[in-house]
Amino acid sequence: MTADIDGTDDGDAFAVTWQAYVHSRFPDGPLGQLADYLANSARRPGTVTVDLDPPTVHRLLLAVELRPAGLRQLLDRLAHAGMLTQVQAHNGEHFGVHTLRMPPHLMTSNRATDPGA
Length: 117
Description:
By secondary structure, this protein is mainly α. Helices cover 44% and strands 10% of the residues.
């Protein structure tokens, strides 16, 4: 899967891969529960788009047992990890519209690509 999926590919398959990646990257804690909810319940079917409108946020907070501030922190962690991008700003109780993303693979050394290094 590419880091720049825009919903024109198979969003459902991408969501499954994304969900598994979140679980492998953050094996403990509430991020896995959040990923499950975002990928399965909050995401628009066939897309990588998650609209966190007030009814969706309410159901999510109950399902994952979070408070709004905790949800914002977890969304920020996913965004900082390159796994979630906000495409529409939040407004009051609306937490915005987001897309699921796969972070680009970061190379910490040229050794992996340069056999002469």
